[in-house]
From TrEMBL:
Name by which UniProt lists this protein: histidine kinase
Source organism of the structure: Polaromonas aquatica
Keyword tRNA-binding: no
UniProt lineage: Bacteria, Pseudomonadati, Pseudomonadota, Betaproteobacteria, Burkholderiales
Positions of modified residues (4-aspartylphosphate): D629
Residue ranges annotated for the Histidine kinase domain, each copy included: 328-556
Signal peptide coordinates: none
């Protein structure tokens, strides 16, 4: 309803007996919005109690005050101009037409308000009545403010992430920004350690006891970060006191923390850490908060990933250029040495020299020195990836065990040596001699780092794909389908500072005394691994030991569809012409298994049940391998057949197949643990691997 400013509204009659003045005064006092009557100079002529409450002044203080006082400083000049213009053309302005107005309270705080204006005349004097409503407490306004705050904080972090090359600063800022935006007590970033068994607290704000920066937290699913790791997606905890999905540390409850929210940090879909916030209020976090934290986490993980890639690239580039340089020098040197050694040899054999003892000794010493020089240049060539490698399929398990054996005999007795390898580790495609010398170099470094003794352990792990940062260091980072075996050599020695770690692969970089270190050990390892199409990394911290990991390409391809390679490898690992007795009652399974075995160059005889199998075995049992299903319908079970064969024909290897997982097998009857078990469904590669590992076990007598 709009009224012309100069007309007097017609007010219906007030019930008899009530004084009109009293009524209007009462309405003015009881009115739910703040009301101010302002004259044409901007002076407040009248204010109601709501105005006093909203603006923090007494009614007495408001009367006589300029309305400009109520306008925030930044808006004041604009407000004066507006008031001036309004005075010339006063029209009613209803509530809600101006959204972003703020009023300044006596205490200096600003409150969000909506203001309605109506011009009016009293005794022919122009006034304006302003109705002011505080809207800061409205849920929709609160939400809008909150959303604006979230965007602002995200933008702030985004700017930082674009400019910043120092990841620690980003890590430090993320929880600070999360805590400020969400107005919570604690926020933290946890990063998963390479072994994925622990998280490390990378940064945080308002951290509780036991979770200081640098502390480790197990990634077991019974812990809250471990739970998130297993979920792989955001987790909201409405109340720690009733949480049952994981164990809540007492420190959280002691610190009065009640609700929480955590989102994963991802690197190509893989969880690498988490960003978590906690609050003392229950049920603090909803969709809006989750969206904010998710955006912040994805900004953070992208920046971390980029920084890591860049760092790795710069490091690799530097080594690359040093490599080119040394490679060139070593090459020229080798030519010179050829001439020197050749001439020395001629001299050695020269009659006059051979007769002269001193001269002969001198030539001999020169020849020895030139041989040492040749060794040195060959190391340099190794670093520069110019040595001649002869890669073949190397069985990791066997190699590590024999290395360990040799080291046990030669290294300090106070150094304990361990080997841990997975049950069916695929072979790797490398030069075995060079791999041994690389591992020896690493082991010698480990010994030097453990003068008082310690533990040196070798382990191997199979990786379907490499982590992003590692893949970037490959010469062909986009090559697909390659499986890697990570050989890790860990010591409990002194560890390295960041500066040493940075330079450890450089040729001639050593921290050891003259005569003890040449600085060529790790550089030859680096060159060898690169030349073998692999990646080598160092994890080390002062006082925390060192782990050197060689990611070497396996002869396997991930996925079973890479025929030529599977065939080639299988032919290497599985003896040719293996005679297999295949016992399988399902004709389809039997057919495909025969096809797989055919690819492995096996000679296959089939039987649909144990009775047929026994008659095929006869008394001479012309087979190398019994491959049998466990459940074979009515009659004898595959395990009984296996037991029988093992007893009567111990020369026949046994491989069981089953559609049940091993837990489901009747362990009393089926004790399959003694024999290799192949779970259905299997592909060609898995079948080949199972047979291969039986043969390796047989060869090594395991
Ligand atoms: P060298 O052993 O001749 O010094 P390397 O290239 O083998 O040369 O190693 C370079 C440097 O890296 C060493 O001098 C040492 O400071 C550091 N380093 C290598 N391996 C380890 C280790 N396992 N623990 C601590 N520091 C190591
Ligand atoms: Mg060394």
């Amino acid at each position: 309803m709009t009224l012309p400013s100069d007309s007097v509204p017609v007010i219906p009659a007030i019930p008899l007996g009530i004084d009109e003045k009293t009524v209007f005064r009462a309405i003015f006092t009881a009115y739910p919005d703040a009301l101010l009557l302002v004259d044409n100079k901007g002076t407040i002529a009248l204010a109601n109690p709501m105005a006093a409450g909203l603006l923090g002044y007494t009614m007495g203080e408001l009367i006589g005050m300029s309305v400009d006082t109520l306008v925030p400083d930044t808006n004041r000049p604009r407000h004066a101009a507006y008031r001036e213009a309004y005075g010339h053309a006063p029209v009613p302005r209803p509530m809600g037409t101006h959204m972003e107005l703020t009023a300044k309270r006596k205490d200096g705080c600003e409150v969000m308000v909506e203001i309605a204006l109506s011009p009016l005349q009293i005794h022919a004097l122009p006034f304006v009545v302003a109705a002011i409503r505080g809207i800061g407490a409205y849920p929709r306004v609160k939400e809008a403010i909150q959303r604006a705050r979230y965007s602002e904080h995200l933008a702030q972090f985004g700017h930082l992430a674009v400019d910043m090359r120092n990841t620690q600063i980003l890590l430090d800022q993320a929880p600070v920004i999360a805590a400020a935006a969400l107005q919570v007590e604690t926020a933290m970033v946890l990063l998963l350690e390479p072994n994925r068994a622990e998280f490390r607290v990378a940064s945080g704000a308002g951290l509780v006891r036991g979770e200081e920066v640098g502390a480790y937290i197990s990634s077991n699913p019974s812990t809250s970060p471990g739970f998130l790791l297993r979920q792989g997606q955001p987790v909201i905890i409405t109340d720690y006191r009733t949480e049952r999905r994981f164990t809540v540390p007492k420190a959280y409850l002691d610190a009065g923390l009640v609700s929480a929210m955590a989102v994963p940090l991802l690197d190509r879909g893989r969880v690498i850490g988490t960003l978590a916030v906690r609050s003392r209020d229950p049920k603090r976090f909803g969709d809006e908060e989750l969206r904010f934290l998710g955006s912040l986490a994805s900004l953070l993980s992208t920046s971390l990933q980029r920084a890591q890639t860049e760092e790795a690239l710069i490091h690799a580039q530097r080594l690359e250029s040093v490599g080119k340089l040394t490679g060139g020098i070593a090459h020229d040197f080798n030519n010179l040495l050829t001439v020197i050694q050749g001439n020395l040899q001629v001299l050695e054999e020269l009659g006059t020299i051979a007769k002269d003892r001193t001269a002969a000794q001198m030539v001999n010493a020169a020849a020895r020195a030139s041989r040492r020089a040749a060794e040195l240049t060959s190391k340099l060539l190794a670093f520069a990836r110019r040595q001649v490698l002869q890669p073949t399929a190397v069985d990791v398990d066997t190699l590590l065990l024999s290395m360990a054996e040799m080291l046990r005999r030669t290294l300090d007795q106070r150094i304990r040596i361990e080997v841990v390898t997975p049950p069916c580790c695929p072979a790797i495609q490398v030069d075995p001699g060079q791999l041994e010398s690389a591992l020896l170099n690493i082991a010698i470094n480990a010994r030097d780092a453990m003068p008082e003794g310690g533990t040196l352990s070798f382990s191997a792990e199979v990786h379907d794909t490499l982590p992003t940062w590692a893949r970037q260091q490959l010469d062909e980072p986009d090559a697909h389908g390659e499986c890697f075996v990570a050989i890790r050599v860990t010591d409990t020695g002194t560890g390295m500072s960041n500066e040493v770690k940075e330079r450890a692969f450089e040729p001639f970089f050593t921290t050891k005394d003259m005569g003890r270190g040449t600085g060529l050990g790790l550089s030859t390892v680096y060159g060898f691994v690169k030349q073998s199409k692999g990646v080598v990394t160092i994890d080390s911290e002062p006082g925390a030991g060192t782990a050197v990991t060689l990611y070497l390409p396996s002869t396997w391809k991930s996925g079973a569809s890479v025929d030529p390679d599977v065939r080639e490898f299988c032919q290497q690992a599985v003896p040719r012409g293996l005679r297999v007795l295949l016992v399988e009652d399902d004709p389809e399974v039997s057919k495909i298994t025969q096809a797989f075995l055919g690819l492995l160059d096996c000679k296959v005889t089939t039987a649909v049940n144990c009775e047929r199998a026994l008659s095929a075995l006869g008394s001479s049992a012309p087979f190398d391998l019994l491959l049998t299903d466990i459940a074979l319908g009515p009659g004898m079970r595959g395990t009984e057949l296996a037991a029988h064969v093992q007893h009567r024909f111990p020369g026949i290897a046994i491989l069981l197949m089953s559609g049940f997982s091993s837990e489901l097998l009747d362990s009393a009857r089926d004790t399959p643990s003694a024999w290799e078990l192949l779970l259905k469904p299997f592909n060609r590669a898995e079948l080949a691997q199972a047979i291969e590992s039986i043969w390796i076990r047989r060869k090594t007598g395991g």
